[in-house]
């Protein structure tokens, strides 16, 4: 299959940096948990070309034994778009709770709050392969360019 036409006209360029960090142990609802932070920052040619600066941050709280997600917090900063999205997994009741706030307005506006009632017993974090090689006490992080 041929690549899209626009790839022939766009040179390779720096899009930004990502930082993935196992921030260590924390407490979540009275139990031990791990905090995983993922940050994305735009830079280079993509920002110049698009005029949109990106500063996104994701925080995952997971069970250390199973790597099942307990909560996820997303702070989206993309140009004028400002959102805070919090997702909480309530396994004991079989629910997923989502809350989204538009922080680009003054005062911030609640966009949605929603509960879903059926989801798998455990959601595993996407960073599980990385975490298997890192200890929460090592305070290791990894960074890279996009």
How is this structure best described in words?
The protein is mainly β and 146 residues long. The protein has one domain. Helix content is 7%, strand content 51%. The protein contains two helices and eight strands. An eight-stranded antiparallel sheet has the order 7-6-5-4-3-2-1-8, with no helix packed on it. A hairpin with a 6-residue loop joins strand 6 (95-102) and strand 7 (109-116). The longest helix is centred in the N-terminal third of the chain and has 6 residues, at 45-50. It is globular, with a radius of gyration of 18 Å. The two termini are 24 Å apart.
Helix/strand-derived category reads: mainly beta
User: What would you call the quaternary organization?
Assistant: single chain
Q: What value does the Rg take, in angstroms? A: 18 Å
**Percent of residues in beta strands:** over 45%
Strand order of the largest sheet: 7-6-5-4-3-2-1-8
Morphology call: globular
String of helices and strands = EEHEEEEEHE
Cα-to-Cα separation, first versus last residue: 24 Å
Q: How many distinct beta strands?
A: 8
Instruction: Specify the biggest β-sheet.
Output: 8 strands, antiparallel
Approximately how much helix is present in the residues? under 10%
Q: Give the rounded overall mean pLDDT.
A: 80
Helical stretch count?
2
Q: Give the low-confidence spans.
A: 129-146
Total domain modules: 1
Features:
2 helices, single chain, disordered C terminus, 8-stranded antiparallel β-sheet, 146 residues
Write the layout of secondary structure elements.
Elements: E1 16-28, E2 31-42, H1 45-50, E3 55-62, E4 69-78, E5 81-90, E6 95-102, E7 109-116, H2 128-131, E8 141-145
Antiparallel strand pairs: 1-2, 1-8, 2-3, 3-4, 4-5, 5-6, 6-7
